[in-house]
Structures are given as structure tokens and as C-alpha cells.
From TrEMBL:
The keyword Transmembrane helix applies. Residues 163-238 form the Cation-transporting P-type ATPase N-terminal domain. GO terms for biological process: autophagosome-lysosome fusion; cellular response to oxidative stress; intracellular zinc ion homeostasis; positive regulation of exosomal secretion; protein localization to lysosome; regulation of lysosomal protein catabolic process; regulation of mitochondrion organization; regulation of protein localization to nucleus. The chain crosses the membrane at residues 47-66, 213-232, 238-258, 410-430, 442-469, 928-947, 953-972, 993-1015, 1035-1056, 1068-1089, 1109-1131. This is Cation-transporting ATPase. Gene3D superfamilies: Calcium-transporting ATPase, cytoplasmic domain N, Calcium-transporting ATPase, cytoplasmic transduction domain A, Calcium-transporting ATPase, transmembrane domain, HAD superfamily/HAD-like.
Length: 1198
């Protein structure tokens, strides 16, 4: 992949140089970045390729099937991209993929436009300067369109840039105003044109046929190896053994096919759509029903009035929709989607930023509302796998590598076994040449050695622990769609939590309100229903996104609590869907007019009502929402805005904000209350209803009058504090990532003991450069909550649980806001590593910032877990090594794990099962390695005498002992406690290598000792050599078989470790019972060797010899058991061994970056509490270079 020229940057500049470039970078700067190299057919290479295929009887094709990229090297040559018929793609993880370039004849396959259609297209959509110009850019002079597909994403050749690029849709480079003005429906011809390029609008997870799955399974290297082994064993006259292995392999293939297809069907059913048709607007002004697969970006669709499922990502341009997005986010609270406003500026549409105006594929549209006879319309922005749902499904189909060293180390160990096999082959060849064996016999023995040392069942054995863990998690209501991540959970050392709905209850309790009058807080009112009519009350009853579904008021829990506390009623005139008949679609009024307006009732005046004319939905980025209202009988409309106090105050007239605002806000946030601010303003009386629908929110959300504060109580879940304590005791670092205020987050962190009572919290406040100086960071100590008597307040024991105060060294925790996080990342990138290592509370974080933080923690070497309710955490949940979504759905595409437990107890369960699964995988791997070495050693020892194990002896060892043990040893359940020690994550660690090496040496020593003891007997006579060298019934094979049978069970017992990660071995009843039965039967064969069994296993009758000899055979097995247990404990489990390993690594720097950062922090006076850090020219130079040197971690406290 080193053929890329300097001109192949994908920028599109430099016509001729770019035209001749052989490679380029696709999706530059994103997680999906790909290096793309062009290839075309080479006739001479093809001749060599087909010749090799014939000479190898097709085996060469098999290697190309396993490594498709070899086709490019053996059949094709590198060429300029514009001539390529094949592209070789390499992702950022080093994985290679082959895609074939396809061609569309635009003249033949694209319907021709009529003159009217062409005019409309040129002026409205396809060739609009801001619109989807893919058709125009992709059709070359020969009317040909070149493209290729990779992981369900299409890349087309761009004639202007002379480069491939991802097929664009309306989610990029489209102005918001353009979506209103330029998209009124496509003609059938335009739609057909786009469909040729964009393909069908479907997210179709292929369910392969059993026959196709069978072919793919059989061609797997594992089964190819099995087939070759069976052939070799038949040549070696091991007919029974070969037959049994063939039968078991067939059964294994059948089970694998069933499970694989079952998973495909499950995912297919989870993402499939039941709808078949959709109504689209045509450019002629009419509507037409078309198959939903025919939708393309730019289509205008009419949302059905009744319940429906979205099958594309679409921008709402008229009407309102109530949707349930639990399929994508796990959040089941209905969300109100409003039309994209008619922006007058140059704002570019973004599905993420404008998500409150975007209907995402896979979401359930519960209700629609429209104006009179008008329809609820939306412009299709993305289709198929390009949609938000499609991206999530692609993440399941093509998961990013976890980077887990266990699997990499396992493959390295298999290569090591292959090298050992080579040594065994050399020894066997030399031995049989010395014994003057025939060439055919030597070849068979050599191949037999290879089948022994490289165990074909190794991959399957390594997954046993994961399968059992997944089953146990499912019984506990935790569902996993990515089983490989279970093992990763065993190595987690940091866990991040969302706050609201995760650490705290979903619902809020209204604590009270603090209205403002004449710039003074009038005092706390605990019952808002006692408040008489005033702007503050009107703001509470109108500034929300509540709606009525099936006769009940539903919506965001915060809005619901706020509205219900006023005891007003919500009314939506008209039917469930047609609710814009009047000028005020939603009306709120007092539930008792006698209580509120007695004088109006006496005068016969109409009841007081307020209509909600327009809603600007809540935005995580803006941290606020607002509404435009009109009071019945009033001439002017009003705007009410609620949101984060600091945001609302910044939009208010300073003359309306109380002087003690910050003090009052601090008083409540430091106690953990959720504080919301309200502001309002009266609009110009000239603004009418239609103008209100088009006005931008920036024009109304300014110069507001500050109304006061709404204070809510968000209690901790009762399980939160015990779980945080468990994680802390297990040495798992906990971090809070929330969108709430920083002081509220600090209070919650203290209450749940994420921050210990005597720990210090430092608030990191970063500021932009201004006229007074460069960017700066202020390191301010956070205050402890203080009671009126001046003493430190202890957390509420009811909410936090009863826990003891631990006498530990006080720690320093950093609390960072989303704004400061962004500024530090921009102006102080060299401090970001320390911030991430020392930070415990990250508040006011947007969804993108949550994901960014998780990724930065991973870059530092942390194994990161994330738990959230799915609403604003989807990206972070997917990015984490173990993301757990708290959801009622059995499975969603929001995260790898979905928990029915509506609390964080699931975190401990997942980590316990992860540790158990990891230890089980290690144990099974080590067992399979020892099984191979023991059998390998046994066979080589017997080869020395020109003999080999009998057919039934192999059968007993491989099927009865090994298969039974390998399946059942992973059945041990996880330990009930989460301990501070973590299981090993690397097979090549010294302790694991020593463990395997010592066990191999012990096994070989015992085998050799048993054989020497046999040869020392006076009655012993060495077996005479025959010409065929095919002797299997002799004293050598009998003794080696008898002793080695016990050895397989011994290593299985030794590697089945219990606490602290799994329950004791005696708790695994099936495994223990199987060991007892196998040991008893093997003992029976030695002590009481009955003739039928002796003949069946091809043994020499042991009863002919003394009981002493038979007893000593068992003694060798007993000595091996005791020695194995002792050495395994000394090597891997004893405190002395751990101290020795630590001492050996004392002078080596840690491989984990975060540990090096921690050490530097401990050795320096950082953070600079109470000081200010300024950006220097050196810092700015680092920013401009966008380069952070990991190993140079200099403190900037001076």
C-alpha cells in the first residue's frame, strides 16, 4: 500500500497529476478513513494465476478466498484510479478489502428528462449549487458513471475532482432555507435517475441460505484442516477415530449453521420494515403512492396521519410529529418533532444538530398534526444504509476491531505451535529414517504430527466462556449483540456514567420556584399551583414539548413534572391529528377558573386561555427551548424561554437579573438540585401567526426579561451508591458525564460517593482569548455543601445509602464543563491528558463531547465502559469498549449491551461475567495448548520406538476426555464479588508463559519417568520392529496411554480456577461429576483391566503384572496432580510470584499512557489550585501544528 503518490490526496486540485494518481484517501479525517488503490487486469499475471490454480488442483483459489486482496496482487496491476476495474481498500486498522468498480450507462439506464423536467431539475434540485449534484458530477463525457460499494456505502467517480468520493445526499452542504424553497417534490423521471445512483431505499440484512452458509463454513480454515486431518487419519488406518471426528464435525457445522442463521434472522427482523408504500409529492403538485424502496434523497413525502414507522431520514418542513425513538436510542419518552424553520442566514442543515426537526429511519411516528387540510411533509435527506439506523446496523455488521490482545496473542501462540510442529516433524523424519521406514510411512507420520500439535478445536474452545456468560446475562435481563465484547468487560478499569436516568431517578420532584420581582427573588414557593396569573406561571404552563397521546399528557419527564405542578390543563383542539384548524393548535388553561379568575367569571368573560403558536424544541447544543404564545384577547404574542440558568441569563436584559443571582444559583446547585431558569419577552404586535412560523429563534431568544428559577429534586436511585462503592473497592475508576450543571453534578458525585467526603474538587474554568489577554484556565476549588450552622453537610443517607466513611488519602478530582473541555482541547491540548486522567465530573457535555471524551480515555490506554439511558449517549455507548444502555427494549442498536434493569447494578453483573468469561477463555486456551503438547510428547516418545497409540486410545483421549472437559470447564459461574484484582489480558505475559511451560515440562517428565520405570522391569522386552512400523498394542503404548489419560484431566482441573473471578470448582457440578467419572474409569482400566476393555482400547493386559506395578502407574498420575497444583499456585496465584513479576518490571516504563501521566501528576504540584494558567506562544504553536507528543508531558502550572 505504499504506491500512493503525493497528488493522491483526494483534494481534487491539480488536474493531470490527480488524473494519473493510483491511490487516494477516502473519508479523510473520519473514523471511516480508507486508503484506496486502483487495479486493472493484467493478462500475463492472469496466465500465471490460472496455471497455479491448475497445478495446485484449485487450492490456490482457496487461499484467495481466505485472503481476497491476493487477487489484486496475482491477477491485476496497479493503475490510475480512473481506469481501475478493482480497488483495494485499507482501513485505519490495517484491514484490507476488495471492491469491484461497476459502470452505469447513463444514456441507457437513466430515464431521459422531458424539457419541463430538465428545466425543473436544473433550477431546483439535481444541479442546484447547494443540492445533490452527484448525477451531474458523476456522468462523464461517454455518459458512463463509475462506482463501487464498500460495506453498503457507495462511492462514485467525480469527474470534476478526478476522484472517487462517497455518494452525497441532503445531509451535507445543504442550506436550511434551500430545503424549504427548492424542494417541492421530484418528478418520476428525476426520481428514477437518482435511484440508479443511490440504489434501493432498504436496510436489508441478508439472511443467507443454509446451502451458502454450509459452503462458507466448510471453506473455513478450521474445517479445511479437519477435512485434511480426516483424510490423513484414514490413510493411517484410524478409521473409527476419523469417522467419529467426521460425524462430530458435521454436527458442529449443523449447530453453527443454525445459530448463525438464527442470528441473521433476529437482526433481519429487528431492522426490517413492514410498510410497503409511501406517499410522495410530485413536482407537478400532485401526490402519488410509490414503493418505499423507490425513495431517494430529495423526495418530499407525506407522513401518514396514523401510526407509522419511518423508513428514511427526512427533514420535517410542515406539520408536527410525535415520535418514539427507542429503537435507535433506547429512550421510550415520546419526542416532538417540529418543522425546520425558514432560516434567513446561511445555516447548513445537519441531521445531528437539527435532530429535533429530523425524522430518523426506524423511529415510530405516534401522531402527526397539520394545519387544516394540509399534509405533514418532510424532505428525504438520507436513504438505506446512509440513514442513522443504517449506520447503527452497519456498526453491528462490520464492528470495529476491539484491539483486545487476547485474540492477537492466541493467534501468535498458534503460530508458535506451528513452529513446534516443524521441530516435531524434523525429529520424526530423523527417527523414522534411522528406523529405515518407508517414505510413505514417514509422510503419514509427519502429517499426523501436524494434526496433533495444532488443535483444530482451539477457536471453538476459546468461545465457550463467552457463550455461557451471554446466556447468564440474558437470564438477568441483560442482552448482548456483540459477544466478543463480553471478554473485554473483564479488563475494564474505568466506567463512565450519565447522570439523569442512570445514577438518578428518571423522574424529578418539584421542590419549589423562585420568582423574581423588581430584580429581587421573592422567596421560595413550594407549590406552584398557588401562584396567581403572571408571566412566570404562563412560562411554566407553555414552555414545554408536552402532547396528548391516547387521552394522556405525555412528554419529557421534566416538562411533565413542571406542568403538573401548576394543576393547569392541556387541550389540543380538533382530532388527534388535525389540530391546526384554529390559530392556536395547543391551548392551556387553569383547571379551576373560580380559583384563578373569580371576577372574570362573575362578569361573564371568557375563560383565560393561552395558545402555543410556535415551539422551538430543546437543543443540547443550545441548552434551551422556547415557545411563542398568544393569550386569548391580547394583541401581542409573547416568547417564553427555559433552559440552563447561565444560558438564559446570557439572553436576558441584565437590568432584569437579580444581583444575587449567582449566589442563589450556587446555593441550590451545590446541594444537588436541578435548576431551570425562565425568561420571556413581548413580541411586536405587528407579528402575525404566519410570520411567527417563519421567524428565526435567534430573533426571539434575545433581550428577554428574567422571570426566575424552577428548582427540582433529582434523587439518587437506591442502587447507585452501593454500586459506586463496589466499583471503587474493585479499583475501577468512575466518571460522571452529564449534560446537567457542573455544581449539581458535583453534588450528585458527592452524594453517591463517586467523590469521597474529604476529597477536594477543583472546577476547571477555561476562557477564550479576549482583549485583556490570551486564553486562560482558572483552577477554582469547589465549595463543600454547608449547613446553616456552618458545618459540612453530610449526604442524605436515604438517597445515598448507608455506607461507612473510609479512611483513605484524600484525592483531587477535576470538574470540567463542556465549554471548558472544548477550549482546553483547542488552546491547551498538552493538558488534555492530565484533565482526562484526573477528571471525575464532566458537566454540560454535548453528545459529541461525551463520545470525544470516551475516545480520549481509550487513547490513554483505559479500557472504558459507559452506561446511559441511550437518549444523548448513543455515540458514547457505541464508542466505549462496553456500552450499556438502560432500556426496556430486548435489544436495540443503541449499544452492545441492553439492560432491563433500570439501574446501574447491571454494570457489576456485566463486569463479573466479563471477568469470568475472560478467565474461562484463558483456562480453555491453556488447557487446549497442554492437551496438544501432552499428546504431541506422547506420540514423539512412542515414535522413538517405532510405535503409536491405538485408534480407540486416540478416540478416548480426544472425544471422551478432551471434548467433555473443554465444554464443561467453562460452565463455572462468575464470582459473587468484584475484587480489586483484574484478570490477565495477555497470553504472552510472563506468568502465563511460565505456567504453560512448567506444566508441559511436568507432563513430559512424568511420561518419561513412567516409561523409564517400565523399561526397568525385569520382565520388560522392547517391542520388535516390523517393516510397516505400525505396532500399536505393546507395553510402551499401554503405559503412555494410561499415564497421559490422567494428565489431561489434571491440567483441566488445574486450569479451572475459582475465586476471585469464578466460583469454586465444586460449584460446577457437571464438570466435577465428569472429572470424577473419567478419573474413576481411567483408574478402573489400570487397576481392574477387564479383557473386553483391554481389547477395545488396544492395551496389553495389565492384570498379568503385579498390583504394585499398576499402583505405581497411578502414583505417577498422583505425583503429576500434586506437582501441577503446587507449581500453578506458585507461578500464577501466590503473592510472592506477583511481587517477583513486579520487581522484574520495576525499571520498565508502563505501556499505558495514563499510568505515566498519573505518575507525573503524583510527582508534581499539579493541578495549580487557585492559580490561572495562560496560553503561551509555545502552546499556540502546538495547536497550529495539531501535534501532541505523548511522551513529553510537561506541567504548565508555572
Amino acid at each position: 500500500m505504499n504506491h500512493r503518490s503525493d497528488s493522491a490526496s483526494g483534494s481534487g486540485d491539480g488536474a493531470f497529476g490527480q488524473l494519473l494518481s493510483q491511490s487516494t484517501i477516502l473519508n479523510r479525517g473520519t473514523d471511516d478513513e480508507l486508503e484506496c488503490v486502483g487495479y486493472c487486469d493484467n493478462s500475463s499475471k492472469k496466465v500465471i494465476f490460472y496455471l497455479l490454480t491448475i497445478l495446485t488442483f484449485g487450492l490456490f483459489l482457496l487461499f484467495l478466498y481466505w485472503k481476497p486482496e491476493l487477487e489484486c496482487y496475482w491477477k491485476k496491476s496497479i493503475c490510475a484510479l480512473y481506469k481501475a476495474d478493482t480497488v483495494l481498500l485499507k482501513d485505519s486498522y490495517g484491514h484490507k478489502y476488495v471492491s469491484y468498480v461497476k459502470t452505469i450507462n447513463a444514456e441507457k439506464e437513466m430515464p431521459q428528462l422531458s424539457e419541463t423536467d430538465a428545466y425543473n431539475r436544473d433550477n431546483l434540485s439535481v444541479n442546484h449549487v447547494e443540492a445533490d449534484d452527484t448525477v451531474r458530477l458523476s456522468v462523464n463525457q461517454d455518459s458512463m458513471v463509475h462506482y463501487f460499494d464498500h460495506q453498503h456505502i457507495r462511492y462514485v467517480w467525480n469527474n470534476f475532482k478526478n476522484n472517487f468520493h462517497r455518494l452525497e445526499d441532503l445531509s451535507t452542504n445543504i442550506k436550511c432555507v434551500s430545503l424549504h424553497e427548492n424542494y417541492h417534490g421530484l418528478s418520476a423521471v428525476e426520481q428514477s435517475q437518482r435511484r440508479v445512483l443511490h440504489g434501493e431505499n432498504s436496510i436489508d440484512v441478508e439472511v443467507k441460505s443454509y446451502w451458502r452458509l454450509f459452503i462458507e463454513e466448510v471453506l473455513n480454515p478450521f474445517y479445511i484442516f479437519q477435512i485434511c486431518s480426516v483424510i490423513i487419519w484414514n490413510f493411517d488406518s484410524y478409521y473409527y477415530y476419523a469417522g467419529c471426528i467426521l460425524i462430530i464435525s458435521c454436527i458442529s457445522i449443523g449447530v453453527s449453521l443454525y445459530e448463525t442463521r438464527k442470528q441473521m434472522i433476529t437482526l433481519h427482523d429487528m431492522v426490517k420494515t413492514t410498510a410497503t408504500a409511501v406517499t410522495v409529492a410530485r413536482s407537478e403538485g400532485c401526490y402519488e403512492d410509490i414503493p418505499l424502496e423507490h425513495l431517494v434523497p430529495g423526495d418530499v413525502i407525506a407522513i401518514p396521519t396514523h401510526s407509522s414507522i419511518m423508513n428514511c431520514d427526512a427533514v420535517l418542513i410542515s406539520g408536527t410529529c410525535i415520535v418514539n425513538e427507542s429503537m435507535l436510542t433506547g429512550e421510550s419518552v415520546p419526542v416532538t418533532k417540529t418543522p425546520l424553520s425558514h432560516q434567513e442566514d446561511e445555516e447548513i442543515y445537519s441531521p445531528n444538530y437539527h435532530k429535533r426537526h429530523t425524522l430518523f429511519a426506524g423511529t415510530h411516528v405516534v401522531q402527526t398534526r397539520y394545519n387544516g387540510n394540509a399534509k405533514v411533509l418532510a424532505v428525504v435527506a438520507r436513504t438505506g444504509f446512509n440513514t442513522a439506523k443504517g449506520e447503527l446496523v452497519r456498526a453491528i455488521l462490520f464492528p470495529k476491531p476491539l484491539g483486545f490482545k487476547f485474540y492477537q496473542d492466541a493467534m501468535k501462540f498458534v503460530l508458535f505451535l506451528a513452529c513446534v510442529a516443524v521441530l516435531g516433524v524434523i525429529y520424526s523424519v530423523v527417527t523414522y529414517i534411522r528406523l529405515k521406514a518407508e517414505v510413505a510411512h514417514i509422510v503419514i507420520r509427519v502429517l499426523d504430527i501436524i494434526t496433533i500439535i495444532v488443535p483444530p478445536a482451539l477457536p471453538a474452545a476459546m468461545t465457550v466462556g463467552t457463550v455461557y456468560a451471554q446466556s447468564r446475562l440474558k437470564k438477568n435481563g441483560i442482552f448482548c449483540i456483540s459477544p466478543p465484547r463480553i471478554n473485554f468487560c473483564g479488563r475494564l478499569n474505568i466506567f463512565c456514567f450519565d447522570k439523569t436516568g442512570t445514577l438518578t431517578e428518571d423522574g424529578l420532584d418539584m421542590w419549589g420556584i423562585l420568582p423574581v420581582s423588581d430584580k429581587i427573588f421573592t422567596g421560595v414557593l413550594h407549590d406552584p399551583s398557588e401562584l396567581h396569573r403572571c408571566p412566570f406561571l404562563i412560562g411554566m404552563v407553555t414552555c414545554h414539548s408536552l402532547t396528548i397521546i391516547d387521552g394522556e399528557v405525555t412528554g419529557d419527564p421534566l416538562d411533565l413534572i413542571m406542568f403538573n405542578s401548576t394543576k393547569w390543563t392541556l387541550d389540543e383542539p380538533g382530532g388527534d391529528t388535525s389540530r391546526f384548524e384554529t390559530i392556536m393548535p395547543v391551548v392551556v388553561r387553569p383547571s379551576s377558573k373560580e380559583k384563578f379568575l373569580p371576577f372574570e367569571h362573575d362578569l361573564g368573560m371568557p375563560q383565560f386561555e393561552v395558545g402555543i403558536v410556535r415551539q422551538f424544541t430543546f437543543s443540547s447544543a443550545l441548552q434551551r427551548m422556547s415557545v411563542i404564545t398568544r393569550t386569548l384577547g391580547e394583541d401581542s404574542m409573547e416568547v417564553y424561554c427555559k433552559g440552563a440558568p447561565e444560558k438564559i441569563v446570557s439572553l436576558c436584559d441584565p437590568n432584569t437579573v437579580p444581583r444575587d443571582f449567582n449566589d442563589v444559583l450556587h446555593k441550590y446547585t451545590i446541594q444537588g438540585f436541578r435548576v431551570i431558569a425562565l425568561g420571556y419577552d413581548t413580541l411586536d404586535s405587528k407579528i402575525n401567526w404566519h410570520q411567527a412560523q417563519k421567524i428565526s429563534r435567534d430573533k426571539v431568544e434575545c433581550n428577554l426579561k428574567f422571570l426566575g428559577l424552577i428548582v427540582m429534586q433529582n434523587k439518587l436511585k437506591e442502587q447507585t451508591t452501593p454500586v459506586i462503592k463496589t466499583l471503587r473497592q474493585a479499583n475501577i475508576r468512575t466518571v460522571m458525564i452529564t449534560g446537567d450543571m457542573i455544581k449539581t453534578a458535583i453534588s450528585v458525585a458527592r452524594n453517591c460517593r463517586m467523590v469521597q467526603p474529604r476529597d477536594q474538587v477543583i472546577i476547571v474554568n477555561a476562557h477564550n482569548p479576549d482583549k485583556d489577554g490570551p486564553a486562560r484556565i482558572e483552577w477554582e476549588p469547589a465549595e463543600m455543601p454547608v449547613e446553616e450552622n456552618g458545618e459540612y453537610a453530610e449526604p442524605d443517607q436515604e438517597s445515598s445509602g448507608s455506607i461507612e466513611i473510609e479512611c483513605a488519602q484524600p484525592r483531587i478530582h477535576l470538574a470540567v464543563s463542556g465549554k471548558s473541555y472544548s477550549l482546553i482541547n483547542t488552546h491547551f491540548p498538552h493538558l488534555m491528558q492530565k484533565i482526562c486522567v484526573q477528571g471525575t465530573i464532566f458537566a454540560r457535555m454535548s453528545p459529541d463531547q461525551k463520545c470525544s471524551l470516551v475516545e480520549k480515555l481509550q487513547e490513554l490506554g483505559y479500557s472504558v465502559g459507559m452506561c446511559g439511558d441511550g437518549a444523548n449517549d448513543c455515540e458514547a455507548l457505541k464508542a466505549a469498549h462496553a456500552g450499556i444502555s438502560l432500556s426496556e427494549a430486548e435489544a436495540s442498536v443503541a449499544a452492545p449491551f441492553t439492560s432491563h434493569m433500570n439501574n446501574i447494578e447491571c454494570v457489576v453483573a456485566v463486569m463479573r461475567e466479563g471477568r469470568a468469561a475472560l478467565v474461562t477463555s484463558f483456562g480453555c486456551f491453556k488447557y487446549m495448548a497442554l492437551y496438544s503438547f501432552i499428546q504431541f510428547s506422547s506420540v514423539l516418545i512412542l515414535y522413538t520406538f517405532g510405535v503409536d497409540l491405538a485408534d480407540m486410545q486416540f478416540l478416548y483421549i480426544d472425544l471422551v476426555i478432551t471434548t467433555t472437559v473443554a465444554i464443561l470447564m467453562g460452565y463455572t459461574k462468575s464470582y459473587h464479588k468484584l475484587v480489586a484484582q483484574r484478570p490477565e489480558g495477555s497470553l504472552v505475559k510472563l506468568s502465563n508463559l511460565l505456567s504453560i511451560l512448567i506444566q508441559v515440562v511436568l507432563a513430559v517428565v512424568i511420561l518419561v519417568a513412567a516409561l523409564l520405570y517400565l523399561r526397568s522391569q525385569a520382565w520388560y522386552k522392547q517391542v520388535p520392529l516390523s517393516k510397516s512400523l505400525d505396532i500399536r498394542v505393546c507395553w510402551e503404548t499401554t503405559v503412555i496411554f494410561a499415564v497421559s489419560s490422567f494428565q489431561y484431566m489434571t491440567v483441566a482441573f488445574v486450569f479451572s480456577k475459582g475465586p476471585p473471578f469464578r466460583k469454586p470448582i465444586y460449584s460446577n457440578i457437571p464438570f466435577l461429576a465428569s472429572l470424577i467419572v473419567l478419573v474413576a474409569f481411567s483408574t478402573f482400566l489400570v487397576l481392574i483391566p477387564l479383557d473386553p476393555f483391554v481389547k477395545f482400547f488396544g492395551m496389553v493386559p495389565l492384570q498379568e503384572k503385579s498390583l504394585q506395578f499398576r499402583g505405581l502407574i497411578l502414583t505417577f498420575a498422583g505425583v503429576h496432580l500434586i506437582a501441577s497444583i503446587i507449581f500453578e499456585y506458585l507461578v500464577t496465584s501466590s503473592s510472592a510470584s506477583r511481587m517477583l513479576y513486579k520487581w522484574l518490571r520495576r525499571n520498565r516504563p508502563s505501556k499505558s499512557i495514563y499510568k505515566r501521566v498519573q505518575k507525573e501528576i503524583e510527582n508534581s504540584d499539579w493541578p495549580p489550585v487557585g492559580q490561572v494558567t495562560y496560553e503561551t506562544k509555545n502552546h499556540r504553536r502546538r495547536v497550529s501544528e495539531s501535534h501532541i507528543i505523548v511522551d513529553t508531558l510537561q506541567s504548565d502550572s508555572n
